[in-house]
Model the fold of this input.
Amino acid sequence: MVSTDRGRGIFTESNREYLTGNKSGISRQAQQQQERDIKDRLRNAILDFRFVFEHMDPDSRAEVYEDLNIEGVDLMGEREDEGVEALLAMAAILYEAVLETGVPRNLVFSKGPSLLEEQRFLPEGSKRQIQVSADFDREIKEPEEGSLTQIDEVLKQLRFGRDIDDLNSGELKTLIRYANMSDGADFSPLLKAAEEERNQEREDVFEDSDPTDGDTD
Done:
């Protein structure tokens, strides 16, 4: 659950609570005012990003990103990193804004990064340009071998007791990719837990099939 109890950003704490569904005791008129305030603040925030890019010192922006305290993407799906989730949501909303306004996607997602690269790497007043290419092909398809979706599925199966020897070649490739992405992930705790669970199941089966059951004197 995203935190609503923090300092003022685009929204006030009251705005955040309203957006997350806390509308108890709020009159219809007050709800309408909240909705107007939220839309006004979002529109002004979008316009303010020009000030952030053109006038805020890049080192100061870097400090803001550092303060997000992002520790890395959790491929196991067991920990929610609020900073990562916020960046994903920010990119999603930017993409939505581009689609809804009709601004060419390649203009925003190519020209925008190009401006940043020029700001970072070219001296002020330089006539040189840096071009960043961006292609957007929308396609709905099944998870590929080694994809993040398949990594999550394989790890869940191992956690719930599937034997690693039962994995097919594609699933083994998925684990290898996960290990490479995770700087040599250690599977021993996960496999140990799965083995303990299987041993317990065998003991339960053995107890249920006690050969002394049914013996008569």
Q: What stands out?
A: Residues 75-79 have pLDDT under 50 and may be disordered. The chain is about 60% helix and 0% strand. Residues 28-55 form the longest helix (28 residues).
